[in-house]
Amino acid sequence: MIALGGVRARPGASGAAAVPTAVAVPLRAATAVSVSAAAVVLVVGLVAPGVWERWSWLPFAVGLLVGIPHGALDHLVPWWTGGTARRSRRLVVVLLAYVALAVLTFVAARLWPVPALLVLLVGSAVHFGVGETTVAALRTGRPEGRGPRFIASGLATVAVPFLAWPATVRPVLDVLAPGSAAVILDPRAMLVVGIGSAVVIVATLVADLVGGRRPAAAELALLTALFVVVPPLAAFGLYFGVWHGLRHLARLVALDPANADDLAARRLARPVGRVLLQSALPTTAVLVVLGVLLAVPGLAGHAVAGLVPIGLAVVLALTVPHMAVVAVMDRRQRPACHAQNGGSSPA
């Protein structure tokens, strides 16, 4: 049986595990919001192509505000997943390891910015790909294919923006890490990545349609179209916050044992309020830092060239330990599906 947040579900007649109410309720709500928002932004981009060229900052800002809280609760994951007797000790160990990894990553990013940016891109593709497949498995209660789907999702969200918008991302890359555009946007590399991305994404879509997984195919097609049609800043902002971040928050809502009774009764208001309250302080701290950086005089013009690489180092320093925590979380949320499906991983 699957156990999440204290709520269990018995396997269905087909052999696939029934989806527990604890995870089904918040994930259903998060999916509805994310798909609707992505569809609206895509339609606007198709009907009025110039709109997002001028207003890219709007979905980016909204996505940033919505997405920050999804990493603000990393420190509570070991508390929620560990045994009662070991929770406090595990929390201290994870916090120390988290800070140490963040510091080491920050130093590495400052010393080697181009390799750091490459690591960030590859790591993000893996992180987003695993996130998509894990969410798909948790929603259906059955394996959703770690291989092709995981790779296709990562390519759609990370590689496609570079393939579809090279002229737009080139100056951004060179500000983030001088010299990185020549490496990342190398024509031969782009050709290989482009052909590989097209083959993997199309093959995954066909396999999903043939296998009767139409919702999964629709989501992959929607994400790919979003990053092809909508400028990278707007598309990534929406994906990061309203799609990836919101779905991750839904998983956290299901993971917190304090939400078990409410979710079993299909009450979502109090669990959502609880997770927002828990993430309020770390989120506020991040927003204050961003506000201070924006308010410091002299950050316009050439000064930005010095600020952005530091910003990249900060982002990388926070992203690497977050990915590590989520990887552990994925492993802890998958075993029940794994056992019910003959040993195959649902993600």
TrEMBL record:
Catalytic activity: all-trans-beta-carotene + O2 = 2 all-trans-retinal
Keyword set includes Oxidoreductase: yes
Location of this chain's protein in the cell: Cell membrane
Enzyme class: oxidoreductase
Cofactor(s) listed in the protein's UniProt record: Fe(2+)
Keywords: Cell membrane, Dioxygenase, Iron, Membrane, Metal-binding, Monooxygenase, Oxidoreductase, Transmembrane, Transmembrane helix
Major subcellular site: membrane
GO CC aspect terms: plasma membrane
InterPro entries associated with the record: Blh_diox (IPR022270)
Membrane topology field: Multi-pass membrane protein
Sequence intervals crossing the membrane: 29-51, 57-79, 91-112, 150-169, 189-210, 222-242, 275-296, 303-329
GO biological process: one example: carotene catabolic process
Enzyme Commission number(s) from the entry: 1.13.11.63
List of residues binding Fe cation: 70, 127, 244, 248
A molecular function (GO) term: beta-carotene 15,15'-dioxygenase activity
Role: Catalyzes the cleavage of beta-carotene at its central double bond (15,15') to yield two molecules of all-trans-retinal.
Family: Belongs to the Brp/Blh beta-carotene diooxygenase family.
Protein name: Probable beta-carotene 15,15'-dioxygenase
Species of the source: Actinomycetospora corticicola
